Amino acid sequence: MLTLPSWLGDHAVLPCERPLVLRGTAGPDATVTLTLAGQHASVVADRGGGWRAELSPVPPGGPHELVVRSGEDEARRSGLLAGEVWLASGQSNMEWTLGMLGHPEAETDADDPALRVFTVGRVPHDTPASEVTGTWRPATREHRRDFSAVAYYFARRLRAATGRPVGLIVAAYGGSEIAAWLPPTESAGALAASGAAETTAVAFTPYAYEARGAVASGWESPALDDAAWPELPVPGYWQDQGWCHNGAVWYRRTVALPPAWQAQPLVLEIGACDDFDETYVNGVKVGGLGSDIPNAYAARRVYQVPASVTGSGTVTIAIRVFDHWGNGGIVGGVTLRSGSADSVPLTLDGVWRARVERALAWRAPARRLPASVLFHGMIHPLAGIPVRGVLWYQGESDVARAAEYPARLEQLIATWRTLWRDPALPFGIVQLANYGPRRSQPGKSDWAELRDAQRQVVATVPRTGLVVALDVGEADNIHPVEKRPVAERLARWALATVYGRAEEPVVSPAPMAQGLERSIAWVRFSAVGTGLRTREGGAPQGFELAGADGVWHAATTELCAPDGVRVSSPAVAAPVSLRYAWQDNPVATLENSAALPVGSFRLPLQD
Q: CA angle 254-259-263, nearest 5°?
C-alpha cells in the first residue's frame, strides 16, 4: 500500500529553498514516481517496501499539488505551500492556545491562509514511532483559537517580515519534564538521578474517541425523566467525586427562561469540557468539540442556540462529555444569555444530573511522564522535515532539579541536531517567566536557578538564543496570559540569526564581564543597544552580593553608561559572588534600549 509521511497532509507548508526528502511505503521493490512544482522523480522501494525520494528546493509560494504513484496506487496532497517551517516544543506555556488564554486576536485578526499550524497529537510512545497525528490548519477565524499562542504570534511576525508562507509544527505537552523529550541514552541518567519509577507510556496514551452508543439513545431529549440520575457539581472533575474512570458521562440541567428570552436566539457558553463534548438544547445539537481539535480539553465553548428551540418556558441542556485520559468533566463555568450586548447571563454552575454512558479503565494522571516517551512519540517522527529552527519553552517541571538542567538542555540540543542531521540547527529558548510570591529578603529560588541554567547553555552553545520573560509573568498564574511579547522576542532573534535581518539589540542584555574594585563589584552587559536603563527610572533593583560566608544581602547599584552596573552593600566588605533577579518572582527593572529585560543570573567575583 502506498503511504506518505503523516505530517504531509493537504495544506501542508513544505520547507522552501532546501532539498525536500520524502519517505513512505509501497510494495516491495515497487517503482514510486513523484511530481511536485514541475519536478518529477522516480525511486524504487526496498524489499521491505520503504522508499526515499529527494526533490530539489522549491521557491517560496504555491499552491502546489504533490502526486505520488506506484502501480495502480496514487496519493495526492493539495493546497501545499513552500515557506518557512519551524518546530515549537516544550510544555504547557508553549501548548496553550489563543482560545485557552482568551486572546481577542483569535476572533479579530484578519484571515491569513499562508500562515498554517500543525499541532502534533499528544501521544507518548515507549519506542520510536514512525508517524504522528495532526492536521494542517490555516490561520482563519475558524481555527486560530486552537493555535499555540506563542507559535501563532511568532509566525505572524515572521510572515510580516519575510512575506513568505510560514508553517509552525507544535509538539508540546503540558507538565512534561525535559527527560521525556530526550532519547533513551540521554534521558536514562536524568531518570535515575531523579529517582522516578519506571512506567509504561500506555498509562499516558489517550483512549480513542468513541461515538455515542445505543445505551444513551434519547438522553438529550427534554422528555427524558432524569430524576433518578446521580448528581455532579459543575464545574469540576467527576474523578474528584469518586467516579474513577475515563469514558463518556452525560450532564443534564433544565433551566427556566426569563419571558423576554422565550422564542429568542440564545448563547450557551461553557468554560471548558475535559476533553470532548456534544451539546444539546431541547434535543437539538447546538455544538461540540471533538478529537480533531487540539487542546479541546481547555477550550472555551460558545454555542448559538436557535430561537426554534427556546419557545417554551424552559430549556433542557444535555452535554455528553468524553474523557480520553486523565481527569474529565465540565471544568469551566456554564452560562446562558440572550444575544443582546447588554444581556445579563444566567449562571448555571452548581449541581447537574449526570449518568455514565461508557466507563473506561482510568488512565490516571501520574506525577511524571516516563523518560523518552515524548521524544519517541512526538519528535522522532518529525526528523525528516528540514525545519529552519526550534523554539523551546520548557522548564517549569524541572525547577526542583535545576542543577541537572544545563547538561539536560545541552543534550537535548545536541541529540535533536543529530536527529535532524543539522549541527547548526538554531534553538530559541524562553527563559522562565516570573511566578509565585515575592520575598522581602534574599533567599533560595529554584526558579532563578533554572533561569540561570538556561542562560549558561545559551552562553556556551552556538546558534542558540535566550528570550527573557521576567516582565510578563503573573504571581498567581503559571501560565501567564502575555504570550505575544515572548513570541515577538523569539521572532526578533530568529530574524537576526536565520534571516540576517537584525534589529539591534537582538536579544536581552547578558553579563559578559564582571570584577571587583575594592569592595565594589561591577558587571558589564552585551546587547545593551544605546545603553542600559531601568523600566521605571532610578537605580537598578534586584542585585545581591555575598561574601565568603555565602550569606546574600540586597545591594545598592549605580548605572555606568552605556553597559555597566556598579554593585555594593555595606554588609559585604569582600564580595565573592553577585546575582540578579534571584527570586521566583523578582523585582527586576534592568533592561536595554529596546525594553528587553535582563534575566536572572549568578556570577563569581574576583579582583
A: 80
E strands along 56-94, which residues?
61-70, 73-90
State how beta strands 301-305 and 266-270 pair.
antiparallel
Sign of CA dihedral 302, 308, 314, 319: negative
Residue 218 has a CB neighbour count (10 Å cut-off) of 9
Read off the amino acid at residue 590. Answer: L
Distances (CA, A) of 458 to 47, 77, 203: 45, 39, 35
For residue 461, CA distances in Å to 180, 241, 413, 580 come to 21, 49, 9, 22
Longest dimension (CA), the chain: 85
Q: Which three cell numbers stand for residue 149?
A: 499562542
Any idea which residue has 519553552 for its cell? 393
Q: What is the DSSP string of 261-295?
A: GTTS-EEEEES-EESEEEEEETTEEEEEE-TTSTT
User: Which stretch of DSSP H or E encloses residue 340?
Assistant: none
Q: Tell me 146's DSSP state.
A: T
Name the DSSP class of 240: G
Contact in structure between 268 and 303 (CB atoms under 8 Å): yes
- DSSP structure string for 152-207: HHHHHHHHHHH-S-EEEEEEE-TT--GGGGS-HHHHHHHHHHHTPPP--GGGGSPP
Vertex 479 angle, CA 478 and 485, to 5°: 120
Residue type, 75: A
109, exposed or middle or buried, with CB in 10 Å at 0-12, 13-18, 19+?
Answer: middle
Predicted confidence (pLDDT) per residue in 8-50, tens digit: 999 999 999 999 999 999 999 999 999 999 999 999 999 999 9
Q: Are strands 510-517 and 552-554 parallel, antiparallel or unpaired?
A: unpaired
pTM higher than 0.70, yes or no?
Answer: yes
Which residues 6+ apart lie within 8 Å of 185 measured at CB?
A: none
How many CB atoms lie under 10 A from the CB of residue 412?
A: 25
- The answer to whether 543 and 578 have CB atoms below 8 angstroms apart is yes
C-alpha cell, 81: 505551500
Q: What confidence score (pLDDT) does residue 123 get? A: 86
Read off the C-alpha cell for 538: 532610578
Lowest mean pLDDT among 47-61, 197-211, 534-548: 197-211
Classify residue 517 by burial, with Cβ atoms within 10 Å: 0-12, 13-18, 19+: exposed
Radius of gyration of the chain (CA): 27
Q: Which residues contact 518 (CB under 8 A, 6 or more apart)?
A: none
Beta carbons within 10 angstroms of residue 204's beta carbon:
26
pLDDT digits (tens, 9 = 90+) for 301-359: 999 999 999 998 999 999 999 999 889 999 988 999 998 767 889 999 999 999 999 99
Contact by Cβ (8 Å): 607, 516:
yes
Residue 37, sorted as left (phi over 0), alpha (psi -120 to 50) or beta, turns out to be: left
Amino acid at 160: A
Q: Strands 552-554, 543-546: parallel, antiparallel or unpaired by DSSP?
A: antiparallel
Hey, what long-range contacts does 396-399 have (CB within 8 A, 24 or more apart)? 396/91, 396/92, 396/93, 396/432, 396/435, 396/478, 397/91, 397/175, 397/176, 397/177, 398/177, 398/178, 398/450, 399/432, 399/446, 399/447, 399/449, 399/450
